[in-house]
Amino acid sequence: MKVDDIYLAGVGTYLPPAVPTEQAVKAGWWDADAREASGIESVTVESGLPAPEMAVRAARTALRRSGHRPEDFASLLHTGTFSQGQEGWSAQHYVLLHTLATPISAVEVRQGCLGMLSALGMAAAQLAAAPEGKDAVLLTGADTFSTPLVDRWRAMDLFVLGDAGSALVVSRRSGFARLLAVGSLSDPHMEWRHRDGRVQLPPQQPQERLMDFQSRSDYWRRKWAEGHTPPGGSWQELCEEAVQRTLAEAGTAIEDIARVVTVSFTRDALEAMFLEPLGFDISRSTWEMARRTGHASVNDLAIGLEYLWTTGQVVPGDRVLLVGATPGMECGCAVVEITAPLTDETDAASG
Predict the structure, then answer these.
(1) How far apart are CA 315 and CA 342, in angstroms?
(2) pTM score > 0.85 for this model?
(3) Same domain, 167 and 242
């Protein structure tokens, strides 16, 4: 989707303390060989705050940086991949109360790790039709995996799960980056990759692992070995097509992209699934940040973009490609152009 006159006015993240992966191996949480192969140095782990509170803290930073007032906002979109609290409770309205505290709509976006990027597309479309004076949408995301229901270290061999909160202020006035295009492409023939052969009912045991992707992947490997070939589909082809389409809508060639921000997988997975198919060297990615946080679900792209902007690794005129993924399978991406540096005044406003 080509976008006109839509900006990112603010970005903020909340990152809890990082646990060194060496400590995880010594504690028996993770295998030494897996740690060595991953390239992951540490993983952010939250020991006290629930996910919505992390989202609130990230949002307060993004709001201060944005220059927008609460009355400017048309809506709030909140996203996460795991439980946000008690079932049936509205985490998004908790976030709304403790950030904008205005009677606007607050909606939860459930789109796996692609949640923030999907919410960005929704916000851009909403702002194109929003009434005068409603010039912004607040996007928030958060997850914590500090629960016996998830083994953050072994949930999948492609990543280690980190805890974080993040926020973006999407504006039709101005911002530190201009959104040029955003979109996604899915191949539902690959939805089987993230389930196993059980009937899809609610959990039947209180301590059943709820995000054990590795056992589901192992299930399909066994079925394949037995001669039961699952439906086809190529992730690399899907990702390439989604990116090329969005780049064309943004009027940008792949050679014009200064940096790329992806989901924070292990190094091998990051290169095989995203960087190599798209023609990027790892030095143009945010691996140096990702290896210190782990895969923070919906928050990876905002974390990476904030990192590039606040450290001065991207400057006005630079174009950044954001690429995310979610079970389904679906690949989403956005192209943004940096329009302003982080100034002392902006940084002080967010302190």
Answers:
(1) 9
(2) yes
(3) no
